[in-house]
Amino acid sequence: MLHMFVAQTKAESIRIIRSPFFLLFSIAMPLAFYFLFASMNGVDKSIKSTTWGVFSLMSMTAFSLIGTAVSQFGIRLSFEHQDGWVRLLKLTPLSPAVWIGSKIVSQMAVHLIVIVVIFLSAGLVHDIQLTAGQWILCGLWLWIGSISFLALGALLGTLKNANTSVAIGNVLQMGLAIVGGLWMPLSTLPSWMGSVGEWLPSHRYANGAWNMIAGQNPASIDFIILTGCGLLFMLLSIYIYNRRDAV
């Protein structure tokens, strides 16, 4: 069982990294947005007890991980259901637990790579001044917090029509990013949008990192909303998968 899990995890990781969609949408596009927003607003200009260079770095790293978890992980699950891959698995020794477990572990490994690449790129280009502790804590927060969005991706993956999942996944990623204040601070958005954005998991996800770079701890509401949404998405996806198998 362990050998199968390791082999499947390795295969999943290689497949993700070799995908041109991963390189484009998880690395290149978030970095392009980062350099654009940081330069446009002034890398050293102050914002929320930090600078635009650091603020945008955490925002775009969060944006990248949300997209990787929702748009790529979720959509891939939906296509595998539509193409009959999940039904085919029932004819192999590979158990559902090993299959989904390997996907989650490989996705988390890829998330770690994304964080390191984006942090290094921004740090080298703009000479970001953070302590070693801040780099590590922000990276860990973003890495662990991405589990909630993997749960959202798993829920998206329950859709039987993969084309529909593509459309919904893209709307979710952009909506969570824009309304959640990842592109521009909530204070610059219309008041009604800012009021909604404060309660989105994407905002709370980035807010924890923003607090850390300002020398503070993530707010309690950040933990509550991220954990609560993650559990809700996970329970809903498990319920749908089990109900589908029963039929």
UniProtKB/TrEMBL annotation:
It is a multi-pass membrane protein. The chain crosses the membrane at residues 21-40, 52-75, 96-120, 140-159, 166-186, 219-241. Keywords: Membrane, Transmembrane, Transmembrane helix. One of its GO terms (cellular component) is ATP-binding cassette (ABC) transporter complex. It is found in: Membrane. InterPro entries: ABC2_TM (IPR013525), ABC_2_transport (IPR000412), T7SS_ABC-Transporter (IPR051328). Residues 55-239 form the ABC-2 type transporter transmembrane domain. One of its GO terms (molecular function) is ABC-type transporter activity. Its main location: membrane. PANTHER family: TRANSPORT PERMEASE YVFS-RELATED. This is ABC transporter. It comes from Paenibacillus solani. The lineage of its organism: Bacteria, Bacillati, Bacillota, Bacilli, Bacillales.
